[in-house]
Amino acid sequence: MATVRQVQVTFDCAAPERVARFWCEVLGYVVPPPPEGYASWEQLDRELPAERQGSAFACIDPTGVGPRLFFQRVPEGKVVKNRVHLDVRVGTGLVGEERLAALEAECARLVALGAVRERLMRADGFNESCIVMQDIEGNEFCLD
Q: 41 and 24 in contact (C-beta within 8 Å)?
C-alpha cells in the first residue's frame, strides 16, 4: 500500500496570483522560489504561450509543515458552495468568549485583506464557535 507523503490543496479561480497572495497573507505562507534557470516567476510566465500566462500560481508553508496551495485559472466563475474548504485554526484550545474574541480579531484582519464575513456559528454543545467566511473570489473557509 502506498503512503501519502504530501498533500496539495488546489483552488479553481479567475486570478491565480491574486488569490495565492491573499492566502499567503492569511496563513503566513510564501511564494516558492522559481524553477532553476529563472530569476523570477514573472520571467517564467513571460516565456509561456499567451493563453497560459497567469494561469497558475502556488504558495507554500515556509516551515514545510502545511500543504502546498495551488491556484489554477478556470474559465467559469464559482456557482455553488465548495465541497471542500479550509479551516483556519485560530481558536484551537480556546472556548467561550476567549475563543470568540480570537475569531473576531482574525476576522477583522482578513476582512481588511478583502475576505468577506458570512456568518458566526455559535457553540452548540457539540461544536465550538466558528466564523464562516469567503476569500477574495468567494471560496468559503472557516475561522475555527
A: no
Q: Which residues contact 80 (CB under 8 A, 6 or more apart)?
A: none
Model pTM score: 0.87
Query: What is the torsional sign of CA 72, 78, 83, 88?
Result: positive
pLDDT along the chain (144 residues), means of 10: 78 95 97 92 91 93 95 87 88 92 97 97 88 95 94
Element (H, E) at 27: helix 16-27
For residue 98, the number of C-alpha atoms closer than 13 Å in the C-beta half-sphere is 5
Q: What are phi and psi of 23, to 5 degrees?
A: -65, -30
Q: CA dihedral defined by 67, 86, 70, 20, rounded to 10 degrees? A: -110
